[in-house]
Write a structure and sequence with these properties.
The structure is a single chain. It contains eleven helices and twelve strands. It is an alpha/beta fold and about 325 residues long. The strands form three sheets. It has a seven-stranded parallel beta sheet with strand order 3-2-1-4-5-6-10, sandwiched between helices. Strands 7-9-11 form a three-stranded mixed beta sheet. The longest helix is centred in the first third of the chain and has 22 residues. About 40% of the residues lie in helices and about 15% in strands. The protein has a domain of about 220 residues: 3-Layer(aba) Sandwich (Rossmann fold). The model has no long low-confidence stretch (mean pLDDT about 95).
Protein backbone atom coordinates (compact mmCIF):
# COMPACT_ATOMS: atom_id res chain seq x y z
CA UNK A 1 0.00 0.00 0.00
CA UNK A 2 1.35 3.39 -1.08
CA UNK A 3 -0.10 6.45 0.66
CA UNK A 4 0.17 9.94 -0.86
CA UNK A 5 -0.60 12.93 1.32
CA UNK A 6 -1.63 15.98 -0.65
CA UNK A 7 -2.66 13.61 -3.42
CA UNK A 8 -4.92 16.06 -5.25
CA UNK A 9 -2.15 18.55 -6.08
CA UNK A 10 -0.05 18.79 -9.22
CA UNK A 11 2.62 16.35 -8.00
CA UNK A 12 0.12 14.10 -6.26
CA UNK A 13 -2.08 13.62 -9.31
CA UNK A 14 0.88 12.77 -11.52
CA UNK A 15 2.47 10.53 -8.88
CA UNK A 16 -0.77 8.60 -8.39
CA UNK A 17 -1.00 7.94 -12.13
CA UNK A 18 2.61 6.78 -12.35
CA UNK A 19 2.24 4.41 -9.39
CA UNK A 20 -1.03 2.99 -10.70
CA UNK A 21 0.60 2.44 -14.09
CA UNK A 22 3.03 0.09 -12.32
CA UNK A 23 0.12 -1.84 -10.84
CA UNK A 24 0.66 -0.57 -7.30
CA UNK A 25 -2.05 -0.09 -4.70
CA UNK A 26 -2.51 3.59 -3.91
CA UNK A 27 -4.37 5.47 -1.21
CA UNK A 28 -4.64 9.24 -1.53
CA UNK A 29 -5.17 11.67 1.32
CA UNK A 30 -7.18 14.66 0.19
CA UNK A 31 -8.34 17.74 2.06
CA UNK A 32 -11.11 19.04 -0.16
CA UNK A 33 -10.39 19.10 -3.90
CA UNK A 34 -10.31 15.71 -5.66
CA UNK A 35 -10.48 16.68 -9.35
CA UNK A 36 -6.94 15.48 -10.09
CA UNK A 37 -7.87 11.96 -8.95
CA UNK A 38 -11.34 11.46 -10.39
CA UNK A 39 -11.71 8.23 -12.33
CA UNK A 40 -8.51 6.68 -10.97
CA UNK A 41 -8.58 3.19 -9.47
CA UNK A 42 -7.38 4.19 -6.02
CA UNK A 43 -8.67 4.68 -2.50
CA UNK A 44 -9.41 8.24 -1.40
CA UNK A 45 -9.42 9.28 2.24
CA UNK A 46 -10.41 12.75 3.39
CA UNK A 47 -8.05 13.77 6.16
CA UNK A 48 -6.38 16.85 7.60
CA UNK A 49 -2.65 16.44 8.28
CA UNK A 50 -3.06 18.84 11.20
CA UNK A 51 -5.11 16.18 13.00
CA UNK A 52 -2.80 13.42 14.32
CA UNK A 53 -5.65 10.92 14.75
CA UNK A 54 -6.87 11.37 11.19
CA UNK A 55 -3.32 10.96 9.90
CA UNK A 56 -2.81 7.82 11.99
CA UNK A 57 -5.97 6.23 10.56
CA UNK A 58 -5.10 7.24 7.00
CA UNK A 59 -1.61 5.70 7.20
CA UNK A 60 -2.71 2.45 8.78
CA UNK A 61 -1.45 -0.46 6.69
CA UNK A 62 0.87 1.64 4.52
CA UNK A 63 4.26 0.35 3.46
CA UNK A 64 5.38 3.57 1.74
CA UNK A 65 4.28 7.16 2.29
CA UNK A 66 4.90 10.06 -0.09
CA UNK A 67 4.37 13.20 1.98
CA UNK A 68 3.36 16.02 -0.36
CA UNK A 69 0.73 17.86 1.68
CA UNK A 70 1.78 21.46 2.22
CA UNK A 71 0.44 24.96 2.57
CA UNK A 72 2.19 26.97 -0.16
CA UNK A 73 2.23 30.67 0.64
CA UNK A 74 3.75 33.57 -1.28
CA UNK A 75 3.18 36.06 1.53
CA UNK A 76 5.29 37.22 4.46
CA UNK A 77 2.47 37.20 7.04
CA UNK A 78 1.40 33.55 6.78
CA UNK A 79 3.48 31.84 9.47
CA UNK A 80 0.58 30.48 11.52
CA UNK A 81 -1.02 28.80 8.51
CA UNK A 82 2.12 27.31 6.99
CA UNK A 83 3.55 26.20 10.34
CA UNK A 84 0.37 24.29 11.19
CA UNK A 85 0.49 22.26 7.96
CA UNK A 86 4.15 22.19 6.95
CA UNK A 87 5.70 21.68 10.38
CA UNK A 88 3.05 20.25 12.71
CA UNK A 89 1.48 18.30 9.85
CA UNK A 90 4.84 16.78 8.95
CA UNK A 91 5.40 15.93 12.62
CA UNK A 92 2.04 14.12 12.61
CA UNK A 93 3.00 12.18 9.48
CA UNK A 94 6.37 11.19 10.97
CA UNK A 95 4.73 10.02 14.21
CA UNK A 96 2.11 8.06 12.28
CA UNK A 97 4.80 6.42 10.14
CA UNK A 98 6.65 5.31 13.26
CA UNK A 99 3.56 4.04 15.05
CA UNK A 100 2.16 2.28 11.95
CA UNK A 101 5.46 0.64 11.00
CA UNK A 102 5.70 2.37 7.61
CA UNK A 103 8.66 1.04 5.66
CA UNK A 104 9.67 4.24 3.82
CA UNK A 105 8.77 7.93 3.92
CA UNK A 106 9.53 10.12 0.89
CA UNK A 107 9.34 13.72 2.07
CA UNK A 108 8.95 16.56 -0.41
CA UNK A 109 10.74 19.66 0.83
CA UNK A 110 11.44 22.63 -1.48
CA UNK A 111 14.32 24.44 -3.13
CA UNK A 112 13.24 27.39 -0.97
CA UNK A 113 14.30 25.53 2.19
CA UNK A 114 17.94 25.93 1.10
CA UNK A 115 19.98 29.11 1.45
CA UNK A 116 20.49 30.55 -2.01
CA UNK A 117 23.64 32.55 -1.38
CA UNK A 118 26.33 32.69 -2.53
CA UNK A 119 24.55 33.14 -5.84
CA UNK A 120 27.66 32.63 -7.97
CA UNK A 121 28.28 29.08 -6.72
CA UNK A 122 26.22 26.00 -7.68
CA UNK A 123 23.57 25.12 -5.15
CA UNK A 124 23.39 21.50 -4.01
CA UNK A 125 22.06 19.42 -1.12
CA UNK A 126 24.88 20.52 1.21
CA UNK A 127 23.60 24.10 1.44
CA UNK A 128 22.48 25.24 4.93
CA UNK A 129 18.75 25.30 5.55
CA UNK A 130 17.08 28.68 5.99
CA UNK A 131 16.37 29.71 9.56
CA UNK A 132 16.42 33.49 9.94
CA UNK A 133 13.17 35.44 10.19
CA UNK A 134 14.26 37.40 7.12
CA UNK A 135 13.22 34.39 5.02
CA UNK A 136 9.57 33.90 3.99
CA UNK A 137 7.40 31.76 6.27
CA UNK A 138 6.98 29.05 3.63
CA UNK A 139 10.74 28.67 3.21
CA UNK A 140 11.34 28.38 6.96
CA UNK A 141 8.42 25.99 7.41
CA UNK A 142 9.79 23.56 4.82
CA UNK A 143 13.21 23.64 6.47
CA UNK A 144 11.59 22.94 9.83
CA UNK A 145 9.52 20.16 8.30
CA UNK A 146 12.76 18.55 7.20
CA UNK A 147 13.99 18.74 10.80
CA UNK A 148 10.91 16.77 11.86
CA UNK A 149 11.80 14.10 9.31
CA UNK A 150 15.43 13.99 10.48
CA UNK A 151 14.25 13.50 14.05
CA UNK A 152 12.13 10.60 12.81
CA UNK A 153 15.17 9.11 11.08
CA UNK A 154 17.07 9.32 14.37
CA UNK A 155 14.27 7.24 15.92
CA UNK A 156 14.47 4.53 13.25
CA UNK A 157 12.30 5.87 10.43
CA UNK A 158 13.49 5.12 6.89
CA UNK A 159 13.07 8.44 5.08
CA UNK A 160 14.39 10.26 2.03
CA UNK A 161 14.17 14.03 1.41
CA UNK A 162 13.59 15.67 -1.97
CA UNK A 163 14.07 19.29 -3.04
CA UNK A 164 12.20 20.06 -6.29
CA UNK A 165 12.44 23.45 -7.98
CA UNK A 166 9.62 25.25 -9.84
CA UNK A 167 7.23 22.53 -10.98
CA UNK A 168 5.17 22.66 -14.18
CA UNK A 169 3.26 20.02 -16.08
CA UNK A 170 -0.07 18.38 -16.94
CA UNK A 171 -2.90 17.46 -14.53
CA UNK A 172 -2.66 20.88 -12.90
CA UNK A 173 -6.32 21.13 -11.95
CA UNK A 174 -6.23 23.78 -9.23
CA UNK A 175 -4.05 25.24 -10.90
CA UNK A 176 -0.75 25.68 -9.10
CA UNK A 177 0.87 29.11 -8.71
CA UNK A 178 3.15 28.47 -11.68
CA UNK A 179 0.29 27.03 -13.70
CA UNK A 180 -1.77 30.12 -12.93
CA UNK A 181 1.09 32.34 -14.09
CA UNK A 182 1.33 30.45 -17.40
CA UNK A 183 -2.41 30.62 -18.09
CA UNK A 184 -2.46 34.30 -17.12
CA UNK A 185 0.29 34.99 -19.65
CA UNK A 186 -1.75 33.30 -22.38
CA UNK A 187 -4.87 35.29 -21.46
CA UNK A 188 -2.98 38.58 -21.42
CA UNK A 189 -3.70 39.12 -17.73
CA UNK A 190 -0.07 39.94 -16.92
CA UNK A 191 0.52 43.44 -18.31
CA UNK A 192 4.21 43.64 -17.39
CA UNK A 193 7.15 41.34 -16.77
CA UNK A 194 9.76 41.58 -14.03
CA UNK A 195 13.50 40.87 -14.04
CA UNK A 196 14.85 37.53 -12.87
CA UNK A 197 13.99 33.92 -13.43
CA UNK A 198 13.66 30.50 -11.92
CA UNK A 199 14.70 26.88 -12.31
CA UNK A 200 11.76 25.05 -13.89
CA UNK A 201 11.24 21.29 -13.76
CA UNK A 202 8.67 18.94 -15.28
CA UNK A 203 6.33 17.34 -12.74
CA UNK A 204 6.72 13.98 -14.51
CA UNK A 205 10.49 14.11 -14.01
CA UNK A 206 10.00 14.97 -10.33
CA UNK A 207 7.66 11.98 -10.01
CA UNK A 208 10.14 9.61 -11.65
CA UNK A 209 12.92 10.97 -9.44
CA UNK A 210 10.80 10.39 -6.36
CA UNK A 211 9.94 6.84 -7.38
CA UNK A 212 13.60 6.11 -8.05
CA UNK A 213 14.40 7.51 -4.60
CA UNK A 214 11.89 5.09 -3.11
CA UNK A 215 13.60 2.21 -4.91
CA UNK A 216 17.25 3.13 -4.55
CA UNK A 217 17.97 5.82 -1.97
CA UNK A 218 19.39 5.01 1.46
CA UNK A 219 17.66 6.38 4.52
CA UNK A 220 18.66 9.96 5.28
CA UNK A 221 19.63 10.76 1.69
CA UNK A 222 18.52 14.01 0.09
CA UNK A 223 18.24 14.94 -3.58
CA UNK A 224 17.73 18.12 -5.57
CA UNK A 225 15.29 17.53 -8.43
CA UNK A 226 15.91 20.52 -10.67
CA UNK A 227 15.43 21.28 -14.34
CA UNK A 228 16.50 24.32 -16.34
CA UNK A 229 16.84 28.01 -15.42
CA UNK A 230 14.98 30.48 -17.61
CA UNK A 231 14.20 34.14 -17.11
CA UNK A 232 10.63 35.41 -16.86
CA UNK A 233 11.13 37.12 -20.22
CA UNK A 234 12.31 33.87 -21.83
CA UNK A 235 9.33 31.96 -20.47
CA UNK A 236 6.90 34.63 -21.69
CA UNK A 237 8.51 34.63 -25.15
CA UNK A 238 8.30 30.85 -25.39
CA UNK A 239 4.66 30.85 -24.25
CA UNK A 240 3.91 33.37 -27.01
CA UNK A 241 5.81 31.31 -29.58
CA UNK A 242 4.02 28.08 -28.67
CA UNK A 243 0.53 29.62 -28.58
CA UNK A 244 0.83 32.24 -31.32
CA UNK A 245 0.19 34.99 -28.78
CA UNK A 246 2.06 38.09 -27.70
CA UNK A 247 4.47 38.85 -24.88
CA UNK A 248 3.90 41.76 -22.50
CA UNK A 249 5.74 44.81 -23.85
CA UNK A 250 6.67 46.33 -20.49
CA UNK A 251 9.28 45.12 -18.02
CA UNK A 252 9.01 46.78 -14.62
CA UNK A 253 12.27 47.48 -12.75
CA UNK A 254 12.76 45.19 -9.77
CA UNK A 255 12.70 48.05 -7.23
CA UNK A 256 9.41 49.44 -8.50
CA UNK A 257 7.84 45.98 -8.65
CA UNK A 258 8.91 45.30 -5.08
CA UNK A 259 7.37 48.56 -3.86
CA UNK A 260 4.09 47.79 -5.65
CA UNK A 261 3.89 44.17 -4.45
CA UNK A 262 1.91 44.89 -1.22
CA UNK A 263 -0.73 46.71 -3.26
CA UNK A 264 -0.94 43.79 -5.70
CA UNK A 265 -1.42 41.37 -2.80
CA UNK A 266 -4.13 43.55 -1.29
CA UNK A 267 -5.99 43.81 -4.59
CA UNK A 268 -5.78 40.04 -5.07
CA UNK A 269 -7.32 39.43 -1.65
CA UNK A 270 -10.04 41.95 -2.42
CA UNK A 271 -10.85 40.08 -5.64
CA UNK A 272 -10.49 36.64 -4.02
CA UNK A 273 -7.63 35.71 -6.34
CA UNK A 274 -3.98 34.79 -5.86
CA UNK A 275 -1.37 37.44 -6.67
CA UNK A 276 1.32 36.60 -9.19
CA UNK A 277 3.84 39.18 -8.02
CA UNK A 278 4.47 39.38 -4.28
CA UNK A 279 7.55 40.36 -2.31
CA UNK A 280 8.19 36.64 -1.86
CA UNK A 281 7.98 35.75 -5.56
CA UNK A 282 10.07 38.75 -6.57
CA UNK A 283 12.78 37.68 -4.13
CA UNK A 284 12.59 34.09 -5.42
CA UNK A 285 13.16 35.33 -8.97
CA UNK A 286 16.51 36.69 -7.81
CA UNK A 287 17.58 33.36 -6.28
CA UNK A 288 20.41 31.07 -7.34
CA UNK A 289 20.25 30.02 -10.99
CA UNK A 290 22.91 27.31 -10.71
CA UNK A 291 20.96 24.40 -9.25
CA UNK A 292 22.81 21.08 -9.35
CA UNK A 293 20.96 17.78 -9.68
CA UNK A 294 24.27 15.91 -10.06
CA UNK A 295 23.63 13.66 -7.06
CA UNK A 296 20.17 12.67 -8.31
CA UNK A 297 21.55 11.99 -11.78
CA UNK A 298 24.42 9.94 -10.39
CA UNK A 299 22.48 7.90 -7.82
CA UNK A 300 18.94 7.82 -9.24
CA UNK A 301 19.49 8.14 -12.99
CA UNK A 302 17.59 11.43 -12.92
CA UNK A 303 17.52 13.41 -16.20
CA UNK A 304 15.09 16.32 -16.65
CA UNK A 305 13.57 16.74 -20.09
CA UNK A 306 13.96 19.96 -22.17
CA UNK A 307 11.98 22.92 -20.85
CA UNK A 308 10.33 23.54 -24.22
CA UNK A 309 8.77 20.07 -24.09
CA UNK A 310 7.51 20.67 -20.56
CA UNK A 311 5.96 24.02 -21.46
CA UNK A 312 4.37 22.70 -24.66
CA UNK A 313 2.82 19.73 -22.85
CA UNK A 314 1.60 21.99 -20.03
CA UNK A 315 -0.02 24.45 -22.42
CA UNK A 316 -1.55 21.59 -24.41
CA UNK A 317 -3.09 20.15 -21.24
CA UNK A 318 -4.50 23.52 -20.18
CA UNK A 319 -5.95 24.02 -23.66
CA UNK A 320 -7.52 20.55 -23.79
CA UNK A 321 -9.16 21.11 -20.40
CA UNK A 322 -10.55 24.55 -21.12
CA UNK A 323 -8.23 26.69 -19.01
CA UNK A 324 -6.99 28.58 -22.08
CA UNK A 325 -8.23 29.03 -25.63
CA UNK A 326 -5.57 28.65 -28.31
CA UNK A 327 -5.85 27.25 -31.86
CA UNK A 328 -3.01 24.78 -31.31
CA UNK A 329 0.35 24.41 -29.61
CA UNK A 330 3.18 25.04 -32.08
CA UNK A 331 5.67 22.29 -31.34
CA UNK A 332 7.99 22.76 -34.32
CA UNK A 333 11.59 23.37 -33.37
CA UNK A 334 11.27 21.43 -30.12
Amino acid sequence: MIVITGASGLVGGNLARALLAEGRQVRGLIHRDRRALEGLNMELVQADVRDPQEVRRALDGAQVVYHLAANISLEMDSWAEVEAVNVQGTRNVVEACLSCGVGKLIYFSSIHALEQEPLDLPLDESRPRVASLKYPPYDRSKAMGEQEVMQGIARGLYAVILFPTGILGPHDYYPSYFGQAITSLVKGHIPALVPGGFDWVDVRDVVQGAMQAERLAPSGASYLLSGHWHSVAEVAALVAELTGGHTPLLTVPAGLAYQAAPLMSWLARLNNTRPIYTQVTLAALRSNRYISHARASRELGYQPRPFRETLADTLDWFACHGYIRVPSIRREGS
